[in-house]
Amino acid sequence: MTPALLNLMRQVDTPTVCNAIEVAQGQRGFAAFTRGTMLSSAPKEPAIVGYARTAKIAAIAPPIDPPETIKARRMDYYKYMAEAALPAVAV
């Protein structure tokens, strides 16, 4: 992603981007993304633009795996997040 493209993308909000994607794809695709109103934790800050790094973390109950397995899994997660193309955003 070039600096010029990053700056251009910072000029539009998320709903505008989502609408553009739906128009380009010719179908509604974000109905399952979120139904509630999203609130910014820093509304006076500029938009964040970057490559999304996603992960699923579940903690309904404490893990029963051996400690070395838990440690390896956690380190794999941190390595995955750290190796993202920049700029990166954890979602």
Please tell me about this protein's structure:
- The chain has two domains: 41 residues, no CATH class; 42 residues, no CATH class.
- The protein is built from three helices and two strands; from the N terminus they run ααβαβ.
- A two-stranded parallel sheet has the order 1-2.
- The longest helix is centred in the last third of the chain and has 16 residues.
- The model has no long low-confidence stretch (mean pLDDT 85).
- Largest sheet data: 2 strands, parallel
Structural class: mainly alpha
Global morphology = extended
Query: How much helicity do the residues have?
Result: 25-40%
How big a fraction of the residues is strand?
5-15%
Total tally of structural domains: 2
Strand order of the largest sheet: 1-2
> How many β-strands, per DSSP?
2
Low-confidence stretches: none
Radius of gyration: 17 Å
In round numbers, the mean pLDDT is 85
Report how far the terminal alpha carbons are from each other.
19 Å
Count the helices. How many?
Answer: 3
- Element-level helix/strand string: HHEHE
Label this structure with key terms.
2 strands; single chain; about 90 residues
Strand-helix topology:
Elements: H1 3-9, H2 14-25, E1 51-53, H3 67-82, E2 88-90
Parallel strand pairs: 1-2
Short description:
The protein has 91 residues and is mainly alpha-helical.
